[in-house]
Design goal:
This protein is α/β, with parallel strands linked by helices. Helices cover 39% and strands 14% of the residues. It binds nicotinamide-adenine-dinucleotide.
């Protein structure tokens, strides 16, 4: 293949000099788990950042110097606002002053499990109406291969603009892992793919100012696929280990012991752990973007569908195991049993309950007549059985009164020794009680 010659024109040179001279205005559309940490990193890199969101409430909160994202402290937002480095707005007209626009809006599934790209289209409608010449647009929302080129590019070209010359368009997947104190937006390497080589080059330059490790790929489609490979890899391996957990139960084996032992192999094995199911805005959703796209090409993505099937049945499996535990250990039925659930967030030490399997487990338990109460230090209120329920105090009496305590999320703040010592019996879906004196006649593991 002939190597494409780079044609760096007037708009490229102008944007390059603004970025390297610390004079670029960076816009971020969507100020959630992805967009807010990114905005703060861009501020730290020296950009003047404007955050755009449809939520008036969120915009007001941020402009008061407050954060609603666990990983971003209030002080980071307050300092950025005070130093005139960050403002949030609901006014799309301000996009006209932006040199770069990063789009970080949600990409959920529709009720029929098809990609819902309506948020991207709504954000792009703003961009299309207000973009100025010479702007870099980067889509960060996770989506199927082809979205940037097939949906976004035509919207901008409609205005008579040419990609790589009059504007620059890239896809760069966000990899942030909420609650992960080791890897943040700043120190997680980033992948960038542009519509043309000039788009990739300027996209890389933009992110290089704040993130040291940038990896360029040949196209926006390639960058979109990278993210789906990463998250499908997780979904499939979690599906595999969840099935191994079910198999180990049949075989009378402790799956956690098996995984720990297998993980001593220094090559060719990477431990994944079973649990009550998948949660969050990424792993349960993203692989379906890929399988949906493949269906349109007459290809059935078998691994994705199988893993999705196993993972989505884990809440039912957990309920079956709790029922068996009550029956075998206390001759009790699930119906009218008092259960105390610990943790409802989809993973430890965060407040996010999107797609949390804990909500499915609780709903299924309640459907079978169990009387469920819950505690989660991060989640004050959740809904089930058409009612709203508040997090209960974690007291000795509450634990001791319950027929069983069920650990669904392994928050670090829980004192697991105290829980096991005071509970009648414990069903632990996360191996959270590992490393404490656990009385095997009291604790049952997934
Ligand atoms: N949460 C994660 O861990 C994570 C990690 C990597 C990638 N992603 C991907 O990043 C994207 C964003 O996810 P998130 O978790 O930050 O979502 P989020 O729900 O936390 O935040 C999205 C924000 O966008 C705003 N918004 C919605 N429509 C808008 C519009 N038309 N214009 C302006 N603002 C709008 C919402 O009000 C909200 O503040 C998704 O595609 C997701 O798959 C998420």
């Amino acid at each position: 293949m002939a190597k494409q010659r780079s044609k760096k024109g007037k708009w490229y040179r102008e944007l390059e000099s603004k970025i390297t001279g610390g004079k670029a205005n960076a816009g971020v559309i969507g100020l959630g788990y992805v967009g807010l940490p990114l905005s703060i990193e861009l501020v730290h890199a020296g950009y003047r950042v404007t955050g755009f969101d449809v939520s008036d409430q969120k915009v007001k909160l941020l402009n008061r110097g407050k954060s609603d994202i666990d990983d971003v402290p209030d002080s980071a937002v307050a300092n950025a606002v005070k130093g005139n480095k960050f403002r949030a707005t609901t006014d799309p007209k301000k996009l006209a002053n932006m040199d770069t626009i990063s789009i970080c809006v949600p990409t959920p599934l529709s009720k029929t499990k098809d990609p819902d790209v309506s948020y991207i289209l709504a954000a792009m409608d703003w961009v299309k109406r207000h973009i100025s010449k010479g702007t870099l647009v980067v889509l960060e929302s996770t989506t199927y291969p082809g979205t940037t080129e097939d949906l976004i590019l035509p919207m901008l070209e409609e205005k008579g603009l040419k990609a790589g010359q009059d504007f620059f368009l890239c896809f760069s997947p966000e990899r942030v892992d909420p609650g992960n104190a080791t890897y943040t937006t700043k120190n997680t390497p980033r992948v960038v793919g542009g519509i043309t080589p000039e788009c990739t080059a300027i996209g890389k330059l933009f992110y290089e100012q704040s993130i040291p490790n940038i990896h360029g790929v040949s196209s926006t489609r390639a960058a979109e696929m990278v993210k789906l490979l990463e998250n499908t890899f997780r979904a499939v391996n979690i599906g595999l280990v969840n099935e191994v957990a079910v198999m180990c139960d049949r075989l009378g084996l402790d799956v956690w012991e098996i995984i720990d032992a297998a993980a001593t192999k220094p090559f060719g094995f990477m431990p994944f752990y079973p649990g009550p199911g998948l949660g969050g805005h990424c792993i349960p959703i993203d692989p379906h973007y890929l399988s949906w796209k493949l269906k349109s090409l007459n290809y059935y993505a078998r691994f994705i569908e199988l893993a999705g099937d196993i993972n989505s049945h884990m809440p039912e499996y957990v309920v079956e195991r709790i029922a068996r535990m009550l029956n075998e250990r206390a001759s009790k039925a699930l119906n009218k049993a008092n259960l105390f659930v610990l943790g409802v967030a989809y993973k430890k030490d965060i407040k996010d309950v999107r797609e949390s399997p804990a909500l499915d487990v609780i709903q299924l338990l309640a459907k079978q007549g169990a009387r469920v109460k819950y505690n989660d230090p991060f989640v004050p209120e959740i809904a089930w059985n058409a009612g709203s329920h508040r997090s209960q105090k974690l007291t000795k009496a509450a634990i001791a009164k319950a027929d069983a305590t069920v650990i669904l999320t392994n928050h670090s703040s829980y004192d697991y020794q105290w829980i096991v010592d005071n509970a009648k019996m414990v069903f632990d879906t996360r191996n959270a009680t590992k490393g404490i004196r656990r009385n095997r006649s009291k604790v049952e593991l997934l």
